[in-house]
Amino acid sequence: MDGHTNGTNGSCSKPCEPLTDYCIPDYILNPDSEQVLLDQAPCCPVVVFINSRSGGQLGSSLIKTYRELLNKAQVFDLSEEAPEKVLHRLYCNFEKLKSNGDPIAFQIQSNLRLIVAGGDGTASWLLGVVSDLKLSHPPPIATVPLGTGNNLPFSFGWGKKNPTTDQEAVKSFLGQVKKAREMNIDSWHIIMRMRAPQEGPCEPIAPLELPHSLHAFHRVSGSDSLNMEGYHTYRGGFWNYFSMGMDAQVSYEFHSERKRNPEKFKNQLTNQSTYAKLGLKQGWFAASLTHPSSRNIAQLAKVRIMKRPGGQWEELKIPRSIRSIVCLNLPSFSGGLNPWGTPGTRKVQDAHRIRFEFHKGAAEHTFMRIDGEPWKQPLPKDDDTVVVEISHLRQVTMLASDPCKSKSVNDPSSPMCRSNHDDDERNSLEDEDEWEEGRKKFGAADTFKFPEEVDIAHLS
């Protein structure tokens, strides 16, 4: 389906013809390589990041296939090299080559697309890196589902089942990447502040326990305006969701079990079944008789929202039975569920910022999760406060394929674009009816169900 040639701008582990539409020459990728003259640039140059530890053995197999079809130097194993180092080196070389008048470098940079294969945490890691670079024209990103939930790929039409890794499947995916359309999505800035411990480890949370999306920004420095003396302040971002409570606890237990016994987690369906068992055990899908009320959100935190920039903080009254809160940016959560349905025309604009304040109280810790990566969060032991604050940051560019679940606010089919001022009052009433109906069925909604492949009869 693509043009082939016996050119020298790619190398393979076995005899094959690199796909010239996607291959990037060595001298673009490696500043120390000798520059070569090319007649034309590839029409869809890609840089591929793959988490070899994702999807059981699939990650390693996928790396092998991509390196057979492309230049080995444009396919990176994230367990060996971090994406920020790769992209920093690449874009520095772009600038050097363009300053020397290289038209191929200019065309490749303009048309570059990124591919990331891994779980949602891996995809968010790369999104955070691209966001941090603050490029004038950031490359759009396609996501290969290679995890358990795969919410990000599912939201943008790339599916949620882990892929096959043969050459024909990879060629087909590359063809989809070439035809994919660009779509901007919101990213959300998250600040987490907690007091530095007086004794014990210098960090309140082991660095390896924090999600990559917080690592992308690192703990703020002493010169940062957000820094407070005597406190550790972390900053990061999320693109799919931030959650806290029971759902994050289920995820934490799943990840902990996978770390202890990685050999048992090499199949996506098995992983989903294990996840569902943990959900039942914790009472995620039904009230648990063993669930202590001290874990309810109202016992742990105060939740405040700011509806408009520069507005006042308003406290939300959280029912005492609520065990999880999810701040959701995309219409996919926990493996393809859409608990919120289609956002109404008025409700979508009712929260500019969200703040969670945790005081000394009913528990020593809670659980939090950003884009599939959970951690165990210590709570105050004295008259102190742990604060998590979420605000809109900027946008990043994704690649979308059909069927795409996500909608841009500029999409004519989006409910936000179909509304006008004359419809505000009617929409407001409709939103209230829609929200009231949603309240009645939440937890038993049609979208809140186990994956079709999971037999619930064997989970209890």
Overall form: globular
Number of domains: 2
Specify Rg, calculated over alpha carbons.
Answer: 23 Å
Spans of 5+ residues with little confidence (pLDDT < 50)? 1-15, 412-460
Distance between the termini: 48 Å
Number of helices: 13
Number of strands: 14
Helix content: 25-40%
| Strand portion | 15-25%
InterPro entries: ATP-NAD_kinase_N (IPR017438), DGK (IPR037607), Diacylglycerol_kin_accessory (IPR000756), Diacylglycerol_kinase_cat_dom (IPR001206), NAD/diacylglycerol_kinase_sf (IPR016064)
Protein name: Diacylglycerol kinase
Region (Disordered): 403-442
Catalytic activity: a 1,2-diacyl-sn-glycerol + ATP = a 1,2-diacyl-sn-glycero-3-phosphate + ADP + H(+)
What does this structure look like?
Residues 403-442 are annotated as: Disordered. GO terms for molecular function: ATP binding; ATP-dependent diacylglycerol kinase activity. It catalyses: a 1,2-diacyl-sn-glycerol + ATP = a 1,2-diacyl-sn-glycero-3-phosphate + ADP + H(+). Helix 3 packs antiparallel against helix 4 (103-111), helix 3 runs parallel beside helix 5 and helix 9 packs across helix 10. The chain has a six-stranded antiparallel β-sheet. Strands 2-1-3-4 form a four-stranded parallel β-sheet, with helices on both faces. Strands 10-7-12-13 form a four-stranded antiparallel β-sheet, with helices on one face. The model is unreliable at 1-15 and 412-460 (pLDDT under 50). Strand 3, helix 5 (120-133) and strand 4 form a beta-alpha-beta unit. It has 13 helices and 14 strands. Helix content is 29%, strand content 21%. The chain is globular, with a radius of gyration of 23 Å. The chain starts with 25 loop residues before the first helix and ends in a 19-residue tail after the last helix. The protein has two domains: 20-186, Probable inorganic polyphosphate/atp-NAD kinase, domain 1 (Rossmann fold, 3-Layer(aba) Sandwich); 187-394, no CATH class. The chain is α+β, with helices and mostly antiparallel strands and 460 residues long.
